[in-house]
Write a structure and sequence with these properties.
Length: about 350
Amino acid sequence: MAIDGKHGRMVNGWPDERFLRLVGSEHPIIQAPMANAGGVDLCVGAMQGGALGSLPCGMLSPEQIRQQVGEVRGRAQGPLNLNFLCHSVPESVDDSAWKALLQPYSEEFGAEPGPDMPLRRPFNESMCKAVEELRPEVVSFHFGLPPDQLLSRVKASGSLVIASATTVEEARWLEERGVDAVIAQGYEAGGHQSNFLDSDPAAALGLFALLPQIVDAVAIPSIASGGIGDGRGVAAAFALGASAVQLGTAYLHCPESAISEAHRRALRDGRTVLTNVYTGRLARAVRGRLIDELGPVRREAPSYPLATSALIPIWTAAQKHGEFGFTPMLAGQAGPLGTGLPAADLTRRLASDALAVLRRSA
C-alpha cells in the first residue's frame, strides 16, 4: 500500500501516482473549468468528492475571482485550480460581414444591442496579482502560457502550473518552460481546442493517439482530456500512461452545473461538431440551428473572442422565444455517457469504477 507522505492519503491502485503526490487531491481527477457552465457550486461538489476542483476565471474580474475563491474555501477543503486564458485580443476588427450574415436572425427575433457582456480576457497583471494574493494550489492555462514575467510570478507564488497541449510539439514547448504537468487535449474534447503553435486543425489527434505520444515525449505527468465519460475511459487513459484525467462534459450533467435544461437535453444526443461561429475560434459544441444553417465554420466570424459580441443579442432574444439553437452549448463527444449525479457522487463513482477496471486488468 502506497502512502503520500505529505498528505497521508492512500494512493494504492493507480498505475501512476505522480499527480496525486504533486497536487494532493484524493483522486487523480480534475473537474474541468468551463466558463458559463462551471462555477462555485460545481467546483465545490467536485472537491467534496475528492477531485481537483476548478474555477474558470477568463471571464471574471479580479474582484470576482477573489469572491469566488473565498466562497469555495468556505465550503470545501482540498486543492483548487484557477484557470486562465492566454490568447491575444485584436485591437480592432471589421465585423461588418459577420453582422450582415447575422442580420436576418436579428430581425427574426427582434434582437437589439444590449449592454456589453464580458468577453474572455487573457491573463494579465491584475489577474496575476490576484493569484499571488490567493495562492491557489494549481493555476492552469489554455492557449499556451502567459508572458515569462507573469508566469515566473505565478510559480514564485507557490502554485503549480499546468497547461493544455493538442500536439507533441506543444507538450514539449510547455515542458521546456517549466510547467508541472501537461494536459493532453484530444480532438473529442468539448469547448475550445487549446492549440497555440499554429497546428493544422485538420490534423488534430484523438486522445488515445495523442496521449501515449505525449507520455513518451515528456518527463512531467500527463493528464488525459477528451472523450472520457465514465470509469472505463478513466481506466483506459491510465493504461496509456496518464497520471490523471480531466473531465468537463461528464460534469455538465451534474445538477450543480450552470447550463440550461435545453443544454442538458442536447448532451444526450451527442451531436457535436467543431465550430467557430460562437467565438471565432474552433470549439466543440452541440449542433443547433445556427450551425445547421450557416455551417460550422465561417470566414466572416471575427477573431476570437470577438465573434461573440454580435451574437449575444440574438441568442438572448431567441431564448425568449424558446429557441436555444443560437446559444453556445459547448460539449464533448462523450455527452451521452453522462449520469446526472451530483458532482461529489460522480467523482467518487468515476474513481471507484476506474479502479475496479484497473484491478481486473492487473
